[in-house]
Amino acid sequence: MGGATGAAVGAGVAKNNRALGAIIGGAAGAAGGYVIGKKTGHIDDKDNNNTSSTTTAPGGAVVTGETADLNHDGFVTLDEIVKLDKEGVSDDEMIRRIQATGLTFDLNDEQRKYLSDHGVSSSVIERLPTVNRTYSTTVSPSGTAVISK
Length: 149
Known about the structure:
By secondary structure, the chain is mainly alpha-helical. The chain is about 55% helix and about 5% strand.
């Protein structure tokens, strides 16, 4: 915003060479905006740190929360699943909380290893890819079972 404002003012003030005035004004405005942002940025960071942690739930939400989305950002991270496990949430309760989010998971080998290495049970790891997915089995005319989502 500082750059745009500076460019507009610079173009308006410099009557002989509006382009040069816009460039100089834009640079000065951008520099001023940077300095102001740098001085007030810690205020924004402080506000964001109160609600956006992926591993710590506010006010004990791990034990009493309704879903696995501990920081209420609309996503469930692997760290949030590990946090549920570390807080002693049972496998069935963990799956129920993940179901409550409506999210689905496609885990690659590295993600499976991460969960396993952090103590999440193999039961939860194996069940994650099927959570919130519906499958139906029909028999084709050839007699082969067809699974569809």
